[in-house]
Prior knowledge:
Elements: E1 2-3, H1 5-11, E2 23-28, E3 32-39, H2 58-76, E4 83-95, E5 103-115, E6 118-127, E7 130-143
Antiparallel strand pairs: 1-2, 2-3, 3-5, 4-7, 5-6, 6-7
Amino acid sequence: MILNLKDIKELIPHRSPFLFIDKCEIKIPGEHGIAYKTFSENEYFFEGHFPNNPIVPGVIIVEAMAQTAGVVVSYKLKEFSDKSVLFMSVNKAKFRKPITPNDNVSFEVKFVNRVRDVYKFYGICFKNDIKVSESEFSAMITYK
Length: 144
């Protein structure tokens, strides 16, 4: 199942300029997915990070992985209309290569475990099929 931007906005509350995924492929609902993003040269953060050498900040890469996981889990829980995804922690983040303007990247996330309402995921960011970043992170997902 491939979700477009409209579908993503129905699953998570993020909006521009803080929505960092363009589409998401659900491999296994609640467990595995891959999101895609092209960081255009007009992204607001390139102006200050860094002038004459723009790169995507690491925190935005991790946030994009977390948003991907939020979509993957929310897709499985889509029958619950009142849900919240609250970022809790990030561990073992590594940044190997920079992401620059007009780069096409993918964010692959895989479910690690769940303890009550806290979901833990492992995410990898790829640029041209090369791993450029990875991280473990967790979020609390509440729903009614």
